[in-house]
Amino acid sequence: MAPSGPPGLYPEIYVGGSKGRLTWKESSGQVLIGYEDAGVIVERTNGKLFLTAKILGEDGNLIAYVYRNKWYVNPSQILDKNYTKNSLEVVDKRGIVVLQVKLTSDRMNIQGEWWDESGTGTRLVENPYNEEGIIMRLHKGITESQPFVKAMFRYPSNDHQGELAETK
User: What does the alpha-carbon distance between residue 17 and residue 158 come to, in Å, rounded to a whole number?
Assistant: First the structure.
């Protein structure tokens, strides 16, 4: 569903590289993903996109925090991270991509996992069988929930800082 309003007022937000698109809450000018205690807020201020995100693991520990595009990762909760000036990817200690975001002036591509403190989660991921996105419900300790977010960067980042993975 396309948001109403002047063209360009609401930038496009997609699930990774899919055609699955998220819609704006017009009353607040924000897109919300996840939960009150952990999730994502996307805002547009003066024509620029801003991401604020709190990423918790299934155990409730803080993995990463982004406030208006400035980011922090908790080294004890991640396996690795990689980034460029407009993209960030965080891999948790299980080896799962829990945040993947790419920002441009009028578009955001985002995938990841958002857990609340009680061990219930949501995964936003590209659908491998069509060109849409999937929103999956996750439960602590259940590991067979497929599909996972495919890494966009090469790892380890110490050897491949800012290098994108090969795509097929």
Answer: 26
